[in-house]
Amino acid sequence: MNDKKTVLTSKNTMLATVVVMLLLATLIMMGMITPLIAKLTTGTQISLEPDYFNNRTALPTVALVLILSICLLSGYTSQKNTLAVVGGYVLLSVFFAIVSPFGSFPIDVSAPIIAVALMATIYRIIKALGRDSFRGKVRGVSAHLIHLGILFILLGVILSTNMKVESTSVVSSGEVAHFSGQDYVLRVTGVDSSYEGEAYYQYPGSSYVTRIGFDVYRGGKYLREGEMKYIIDLKWGQSYTTTYIHRGVTEELFIAPRAVDFQEGLVDIYMRTVPFINFLWGGLYLLVIGIVALLASDRIKAVQDHLENVNWKNRSEEK
Question: Which residues have a Cβ under 8 Å from the Cβ of 316 and sit 6 or more positions away?
């Protein structure tokens, strides 16, 4: 194919990647500030559910993964072959959506696309390690680490959002809290309340703090102990909580008190289990490492070029 008709160049695909990422960031930012704007302008407190973000970011996310795949293939094969490969696993994604092996439409659609892109990225990293110069290896690997980080972030967001399990349970001190659909249970070991801070009017403190101690069990086995607080700010007339978060290798456990019934001695506890959230954190680390390594490589090259120019000038003056 004539080079003048080639559209899928590295420059064009990188530009498209940046544009789509900016679109994604804009959509997410708009969703995050919408409740704030509503609160400031109308006084209405609103909360946007995950479906709000999922429905608006699904297509840009798929487009981003496809463009990243084209970036990986660009320069290694012709435009026709690139479109054939990308079109092939788009059809695979459609097949997965029909068969639904994971039982979740977002995961069924995105899993084949991201899986192929991950394999292509890892292959390019291996190829980059085979370059002759050290700088060439660093540049090649760091650039694809950025791709890998983006894919891990997308994978973490999709899996954690669509596979998370959340439920509540109301218990008193000494009782065991069971949560529907989750492998964790809590045994509340103590509920203690006291005033804290400076005296406020007739109260001995400016806040009333309830400490909730508990033991966490998983699969019937003791895991660890923890504590969370339910705080009533008497001065400002607000209540807020401290939460318990445990990040494991495969999932994240989030526990928080929703409300406390002081007369009955009951605590309403919320628990959320988020699997594969570490893909997101790992992706962020890979993204940062790739960017830093790429910038450092360019900086070192610039310093080396400057030193070579200085040495060349010195040799010229000596002659």
Answer: none
Q: Are residues 210 and 156 in the same domain?
A: no
Q: At what angle do helices 10-42 and 50-73 cross, to 10 degrees?
A: 170
Report in angstroms the alpha-carbon separations of 299 from 233, 290, 292, 296, 308: 52, 14, 10, 5, 14
Look at the chain and count its residues.
319
pTM of the full predicted structure?
Answer: 0.70
Residue 63's nearest CA partner among 22, 122, 108 is 22
Last residue of a domain, one of 275, 292, 313: 275
Q: What crossing angle do the helices spanning 105-129 and 79-99 adopt, rounded to 10°? A: 140
Q: Are residues 128 and 207 in the same domain?
A: no
Based on the fold, state whether residues 253 and 201 are members of the same structural domain.
yes
The per-residue pLDDT for range 12-66, each reduced to its tens digit, is: 777 787 788 788 888 878 877 887 787 778 777 777 776 777 777 777 777 777 7
Kindly list the strands in the beta sheet with 266-275, ordered across the sheet, starting from the edge strand earlier in the chain. 165-172, 266-275, 251-261, 244-247
